[in-house]
What does this fold into?
Amino acid sequence: MRLIVATVGVIALASSASAADIAYKAPAAQVVVPSANWTGIYLGGHVGGSWGKADTSNSWMTTNGVLTSNVPGLNAGTFAGLDRSFDLNGSFTGGVQVGYNYEFSNRVVLGIEGDFAWADNKGNDSYIASVEGPTYSSESKTEWFATIRGRAGYSFGTVLPYVTGGVAFVHNTGSVRAIG
It folds into this structure.
């Protein structure tokens, strides 16, 4: 009887030991990709550069080319040049933007965004405005610009193609002065 009990015990130990050695294939891990949700507020910053061109039109001229301006120092006379333009120097720009998007259950995304940027674009030009008059200097300076835009798009998960449109504002100053 002891032999039977010992044999059963050895078989039980051997089978449990061999059971531990049997290759067990765990189920494949399922990768769950969270769906993107574009709803929320965001805040950011931006840096870049800006440059430009200042174009002036001689809208004070009559059809016969005689000045009719009320600008001090611009007396009636024949204008020596037509429209003028000059380049504004490039400058560093930097600013902030803030926006809000809302994603509807049908994956349509609507939003609004605004931004503000500082700039330091300057340019000037000198010219003789009249055959009979002095030389003039004109200057243009852009100090900042901003936009407010609406957005409409369609979410494809982490990709959001959209269209946007709105208004832009710029703080630009200009001056004309006689220099001789």
